[in-house]
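Structure tokens please, single chain.
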Amino acid sequence: MVKTTRRYYFAARNAKTPHGYEINFVNIPHAQAVGVTYEETVYYAYRVLADFLLHLPEDADLADYTLHQIPVSEDENVFYSLVSATPDFDPHKMMTDFTLSQAAPLEIRRQADRIARLVAHARDLAAL
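Here you go.
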């Protein structure tokens, strides 16, 4: 039998800015992380999300903050991802999954390439 762990999913808006990156949680007002590298920003985003969730009132409905839908963005510097959290909201157990729309294989490759270019370090761009 496969062991599974319950996870809660939160939609995150990821943006490349002139100074680095910014991650906002779609259904959590004012939950924002900024950083110079994408990896740093994800780390801060996990901390921000964990802090928010751990300080929710006992009677709060967690479903109000979890994924309902992923917005569509036409901005070439913005993409959406899913951040999953375990019931203990431990930021070290959080994971990010990138989202790609269902499309023809060529379009999926284009979307994946765009995300890869947005999150890659300058030294990694030569490999793409």
